[in-house]
């Protein structure tokens, strides 16, 4: 396969950045998207050019490090797939592919396609924890959890914090991420003591970071590589309103 | 003897900003308080939206009285003004309802504008290519639709409430104003009205279920029912509001 890439190049946080066009030849359809970029980067390095910087780690779709907006869609058009698990067989030979970093004020570009997602860490720090009694481990069956609650909590807990929801949202909102983290804990008995204060602290931190508000467009859940459902946001709203009513 | 390979830096040095930005803390002035939070504004939007939808349903039912004859419509208009009579003075209840409605419109707009400004600030650099994945065209015309509806409401009040742009003027019976306003020669008024009502329908298709989501009453088992309700309500309002003017313009009602 031969491809034309239009990639966002930005040498550092203060650079204004621009789109640069590259030709990539002899791409195997079995390559992942990141491997295709590796091939291009090898060539750029040999030619003495600066390779394209992008985040990646596990390359098996579970760490949440990789992520770029491919042809206008976060992680590419393949549903429920991270960029590292997106394979070149989903593209046509001769295709022109646009690659951009996540675009949001709270996610400043570090370099090229790498953005700083520390804002997510601060949202987690604000309330993404539970109090546990110190001492010996409790018996596994000492705290019953309904199957439905366990399933829903697990669905929310699969969030890998990649930031695709923010990238896809027309408002640059981090609601799906924050809601996933809140829901994950608020559906389980272990999360009950801080349930309302958690929702308030995390939503307030989300606002303080400068993310936009949710308008229920559903763009986030459509691109989420883990398919976090939209009703986690309703759960977050419910907890937040209760926290403010108190 | 060990061979060493000079790998050099993996990437070119990155220029860092002069100082780390200070960690943003909640509780700073900008984010304090329920109404300053994005979720608080959303709740204001949902509640005021619900007030307006309730008004629309009642308004539509009132409009349909024109099909029972001009007298029926005029009696209804009069009854609105003497609600609570003789205990309450003329137009007391109606004025209170009007104030609630105006406050709702203003708060709804305030929430919408401040959320839109917040959204704009959250994405200072736009995408070169952006493709919607959710497929809900109604969600993308909410702000545009809201402005269209507002402009229409101004015209509508001038036409049928104050009679400024109505051929019959203010000192006429409500049914006469309505019949004169939509008569066949004024087909363009009907056209404006149709466009506005369609906008309302599209606004509510997203708005109604969205309000439930915002107030935290939605979940995956209720989504289907909520979206169906939003669709049915929008369709009912669309038909109910379009029937009288179209019937007048096409001469069904005389």
TrEMBL record, chain B:
SUPFAM superfamilies: Fumarate reductase respiratory complex transmembrane subunits. InterPro entries: Cytochrome_b-558 (IPR011138), SQR/QFR_C/D (IPR034804). Residues 1-34 are annotated as: Disordered. The chain crosses the membrane at residues 43-62, 93-116, 137-158, 187-204, 225-253. It comes from the Bacteria. Gene3D superfamilies: Fumarate reductase/succinate dehydrogenase, transmembrane subunit. This is Succinate dehydrogenase cytochrome b subunit. It comes from Nonomuraea indica. The lineage of its organism: Bacteria, Bacillati, Actinomycetota, Actinomycetes, Streptosporangiales.
């Amino acid at each position: 396969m031969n491809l034309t890439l239009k990639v966002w190049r930005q040498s550092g946080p203060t650079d204004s950045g621009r789109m640069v066009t590259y030709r990539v030849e002899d791409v195997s359809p079995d390559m992942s998207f990141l491997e295709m970029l590796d091939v291009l980067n090898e060539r750029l390095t040999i030619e003495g050019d600066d390779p394209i910087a992008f985040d990646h780690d596990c390359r098996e779709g579970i760490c949440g490090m990789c992520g770029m907006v491919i042809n206008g869609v976060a992680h590419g058009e393949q549903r429920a797939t991270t960029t590292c698990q997106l394979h070149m067989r989903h593209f046509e030979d001769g295709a022109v592919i646009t690659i951009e970093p996540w675009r949001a004020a709270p996610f400043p570009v570090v370099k090229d396609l790498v953005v700083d997602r520390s804002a997510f860490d601060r949202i987690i720090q604000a309330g993404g924890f539970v109090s546990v009694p110190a001492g010996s481990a409790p018996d596994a069956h000492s705290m019953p959890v309904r199957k439905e609650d366990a399933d829903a909590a697990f669905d929310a807990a699969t969030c890998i914090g990649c930031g695709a929801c923010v990238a896809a949202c027309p408002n640059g909102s981090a609601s799906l991420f924050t809601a996933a983290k809140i829901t994950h804990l608020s559906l389980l008995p272990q999360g009950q003591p801080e349930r309302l204060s958690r929702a308030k602290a995390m939503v307030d931190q989300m606002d303080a970071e400068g993310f936009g508000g949710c308008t229920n467009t559903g763009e986030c859940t459509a691109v989420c590589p883990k398919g976090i459902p939209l009703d986690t946001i309703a759960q977050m709203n419910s907890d937040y309103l209760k926290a403010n009513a108190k | 003897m060990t061979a060493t390979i000079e790998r050099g830096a993996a990437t070119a040095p990155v220029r860092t900003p002069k100082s780390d930005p200070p960690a943003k803390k909640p509780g700073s002035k900008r984010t304090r308080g329920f109404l300053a939070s994005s979720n608080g504004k959303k709740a204001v939007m949902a509640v005021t939206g619900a007030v307006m939808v309730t008004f629309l349903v009642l308004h539509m039912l009132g409009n349909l009285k024109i099909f029972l004859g001009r007298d029926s419509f005029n009696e209804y208009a009069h009854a609105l003004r003497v609600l609570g009579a003789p205990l309450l003075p003329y137009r007391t209840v109606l004025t209170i309802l009007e104030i609630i409605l105006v406050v709702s419109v203003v708060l709804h707009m305030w929430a919408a504008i401040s959320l839109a400004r917040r959204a704009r600030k959250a994405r200072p650099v736009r995408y070169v290519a952006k493709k919607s994945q959710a497929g809900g065209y109604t969600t993308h015309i909410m702000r545009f639709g809201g402005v269209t509806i507002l402009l229409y409401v101004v015209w509508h009040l001038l036409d049928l409430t104050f009679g400024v742009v109505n051929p019959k003027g203010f000192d006429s019976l409500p049914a006469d104003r309505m019949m004169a306003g939509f008569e066949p020669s004024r087909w363009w008024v009907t056209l404006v009205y149709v466009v506005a009502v369609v906008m309302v329908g599209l606004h509510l298709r997203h708005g109604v279920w969205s309000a439930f989501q915002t107030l935290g009453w939605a979940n995956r088992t209720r989504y289907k029912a909520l979206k169906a309700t939003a669709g049915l309500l929008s369709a009912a309002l669309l038909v109910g509001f379009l029937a009288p003017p179209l019937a007048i313009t096409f001469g069904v009602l005389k």
